[in-house]
Amino acid sequence: MSKQAKKIPTNIITGFLGVGKTTAIQQLLKQKPADETWGILVNEFGQIGIDGTLLSTFTDSLTDQAKRIIVKEVPGGCLCCVAGLPMKMGLNMLISKAKPDRILIEPTGLGHLQQVIKDLSGEFYCDVLALNATICLVDPAHLNDTKYVENNHFQDQISLADVLVANKTEQLNRDDETSFMDFSQQLLPIKKSVLWTHHGDFSIDTLSLPLNEQRRSQHLSAHLKHSHAHHHHADQMELMIDPRFERNHGNGQGLFSYGWVFNQHQTFNLMALATLLEPLEVIRLKAVIKTEQGCFTINSVNGECDFMPVGELELSKIEIISMQELPWQKLEEALCDSLL
Predict the structure, then answer these.
(1) For the whole model, what pTM was predicted?
(2) Which of 135, 240, 262, 282 is most solvent-facing, going by the fewest CB within 10 Å?
């Protein structure tokens, strides 16, 4: 078989919101062979697409390797419904543009994984993609939290994973690791690999493990019942259009997303913005921002906010995901007050 006719090795990197999927992909990109081109397809629950920006900004730091990494975003829901068509369009463009030697797919932490696997292994892609192991990142602390263990998506991600990766383990001990391994060993079908790691760092060799097509979702009917994320058009039309930013909010599956994209002329006061964002009680906050002290990424899960310096950014993006509806108009006013 010619090189052009070879199937493209493809992996799904899944896990719940905030578990570190994007960080894990960054760690894998560091291990990418210099002579290979990789394509990354990123899907988010939110509307404005920050993970793709984070990955693109990261690849810019990889010097020559960055020239052989192509990132494509499909924002606004889950790959299986936002729908099959946007996913196929994004994936087809990625394959056509990048002609990748490998593809990594990061679906939203609230997507329906069984349907995504079915679509990628179906007749449309069966001669194009070699779908390998599905890799699921898990925060072991979530296994003791009913908010997660009773969530259908969380359960299905673990059930459908070929490889289970315990992440965010920096504050955990040997007993926690033993408990996680005991939990993993009870899962059927048996996992191909179970890993305990920090900062999403695991070997590139994991990508070559095979997919077990016998794994099944525990909640097949949920795919037919779930609500799609949608825009609050009515609320937004009541407000004057502000030339400094675009707002893009949505809700679905019991969550609310609030997003803003500030144009290239807007610069934040870093201290004022940090003072505003750090106390917010939300399950996920992500941002890429321009400030008077340089450009930063912001990554917050359950109230723990990390600011990391990055290279130059064209735009500032902020996205918040919450289980409760937020007073977003007041929050928007406060964001604008944080501008210089």
Answers:
(1) 0.81
(2) 240
